[in-house]
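Below is a filled-in request sheet from our internal design queue. Each sheet records the structural input a requester submitted and the sequence that came back. We keep these sheets so that new team members can see what a complete request looks like end to end.

REQUESTER: design group, bay 2
PRIORITY: normal
MODE: inverse folding
CHAIN LENGTH: 195
BACKBONE (tokenized):
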């Protein structure tokens, strides 16, 4: 006996979701306060006030919501803040991924420079850093930037929870698959031609 049509239609309409960046993904890719302090100390850069960045962004989002409260309903405010916070979290996650790649390149260049038999990895002319040193310094800069954006994202997420009363979760949008619609239309035309 054939299965009911409603069951096969429901399984055919299974929609894949495109997952957005989460705060946990940011935590895994961006340096924390201890690592940012170690980077700053090792490379002689300024120590970033991560707590200040987080608090500033939390206040910024709260003040923005207060300013919009008369013009937006509760649901509209939630959707607006969802997008704003998602942008902060996505930016921090992207910076964390870029930082991870920069660290990998710095490690590779440093390992190659340790090999005395390689002429191309020798130090540059007097007064210039080696390629490996430049890559390490670049990775350090990217680490400080990623940490700063991590703290901004944490502030935005905290503000969302304070305003909306729920923990922020990334919006999951359906994956667009335009090829599937074209295949379906082509199949319909072919079936129509067959009679």
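RETURNED SEQUENCE:
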């Amino acid at each position: 006996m054939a299965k009911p049509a409603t069951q096969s239609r429901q399984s055919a309409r299974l929609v894949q979701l495109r997952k957005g960046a989460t705060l946990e993904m940011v935590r895994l890719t961006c340096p924390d306060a201890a690592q940012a302090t170690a980077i700053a100390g090792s490379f002689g850069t300024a120590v970033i006030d991560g707590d200040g960045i987080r608090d500033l962004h939390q206040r910024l989002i709260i003040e923005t919501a207060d300013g919009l409260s008369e013009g937006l309903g509760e649901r509209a405010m939630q959707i607006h803040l969802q997008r704003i916070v998602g942008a902060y979290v996505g930016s921090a996650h992207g910076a964390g991924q870029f930082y991870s790649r920069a660290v990998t390149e710095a490690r590779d260049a440093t390992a190659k420079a340790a090999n005395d038999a390689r002429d191309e990895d020798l130090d540059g002319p007097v007064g210039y850093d080696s390629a490996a040193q430049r890559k390490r310094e670049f990775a350090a800069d990217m680490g400080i930037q990623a940490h700063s954006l991590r703290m901004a994202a944490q502030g935005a997420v905290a503000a969302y929870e304070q305003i909306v009363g729920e923990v922020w979760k990334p919006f999951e949008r359906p994956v667009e698959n335009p090829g599937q619609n074209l295949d379906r239309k082509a199949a319909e035309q072919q079936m129509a031609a067959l009679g």
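SHEET NOTES:
- Residues 19-194 form one domain.
- The chain has a mean pLDDT of 81.
FILED BY: M.R.
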